[in-house]
Amino acid sequence: MDDLTEMLKGTLEGCVLEIIGSEETYGYAITRRLNELGFADVVEGTVYTILLRLERNGRVQVTKRPSGVGPPRKFYALNEAGREELAKFWAKWQYVSSRIDRLKEGGK
Amino acid sequence: MNFWETITGSDLTREWKAFEDRAKALPDEYRAAWEEIKGHLFPHGDFTGRNLMPILDSALGLLEETAADGQSVHEVLGDDIRGFCTALVGGEGARTYRDRWREQLNRDVARKLSRLGG
Predict the structure, then answer these.
(1) How many other β-carbons are positioned within 10 Å of the β-carbon of residue A82?
(2) Is A58 on the interface with B (CB under 8 A)?
(3) What is the CATH number of the domain that holds B73?
(4) Cβ contact (<8 Å) for B78 and A52?
(5) Domain that holds residue B88
(6) Domain annotation covers residue B20
(7) Is B27 an interface residue toward A (CB < 8 Å)?
(8) Architecture of domain A4-105
(9) Domain locations in chain A?
(10) Which of A13, B73, B75, B106 is 20 to 30 Å from B29 at the Cα level?
(11) Are the beta carbons of A44 and B75 separated by less than 8 Å?
C-alpha cells in the first residue's frame, strides 16, 4: 500500500518501541521488520531519527557492539520508562482504533 | 572546551576537519548525501554552528554504519533528505533562522514600546 507515511507518522514510534520490546535489536533490523510488515516506505533514516528521540527521552538502553565490518552497531533495549511508554501507546491505539471502527460501522 | 576555543572557534575548525575526513572515506553516493544533509542543516545552526556538531556527528554516524552494510543511500534515507534533517534537528534544541528573526522582532518591538512608554 502506498502513501501510508502520513498516516503512520504518529504511530511509528510505538511500532518501534514494540519491536525493541520483543528483543534487543538495531536500526537496520527494525527497518527490515517494518518493511516485512508491509510498511515499504519506511527507510532506515526514519527509524534512526525515532531511535535518537527515544534515546534522548530516556526510553531505551543503548549498547555498542562491534560489527563484522565498519563501525560498531548500536543495539537498543527498552528500559522501565520505555515499557511504560509502550503500554501507554497500546492503550491510546486501542482507544483510537475502537473509535474509528465505531465510526466506520455507523454506530453510536 | 577552553576559553580560547570558545572565542576563536578553533575547536570547531578541528571538528569540521574531522567530519570532512570521515566523509571522504564514504562511497560517492553517500558523500553526495552528506553534502545535501549539510545544506539542509546549516539554516538550523546558531551563530557559530556549534549546536549542529552533535547532530552532524550522528548523521555521519548513520551514513558510516549503513555504508559499511553495503546498503544504498536510497534504502537508508529514501526520497526525503530534507524531512530526515528536519526530524534530526527537531526537539534537539537547534534553532532556526526563523526563531532568531522572531526573537529579534519581538525584542525590537518591546524596545520601541518601552521607549514610547518612557
Answers:
(1) 20
(2) no
(3) 1.10.1900.10
(4) no
(5) 8-117
(6) yes
(7) no
(8) Orthogonal Bundle (1.10)
(9) 4-105
(10) A13
(11) yes
From residue B67, alpha-carbon distances to A55, B62, B70 in Å are 22, 8, 5
* CA A3 – CA A74 distance, rounded (Å): 29
| Cα A46 → chain centroid | 10
Residue B51 has pLDDT above 60, yes or no: yes
Q: With bands split at pLDDT 50, 70 and 90, how would you rate the model's confidence at A107?
A: low
Averaged pLDDT for residues B52-58: 89
Edge-to-edge strand list for the sheet holding A25-26: A25-26, A73-78, A60-65
What is the interface pTM, i.e. ipTM, of the complex? 0.75
Asked if residue B62 is part of any domain, the answer here is yes
Residues of B in Cβ contact (< 8 Å) with A73: 65
- Note whether A49 contacts B: Cβ–Cβ < 8 A: yes
Considering the entire predicted model, what is its pTM? 0.78
Q: Can you give the C-alpha Rg of chain A in angstroms?
A: 16
Size of interface A-B (CB pairs under 8 A): 50
In a domain, residue B106? The reply is yes
Flag whether residue B61 sits within 8 Å of chain A, measured between CB atoms: yes
Q: How many domains are contained in chain B? A: 1
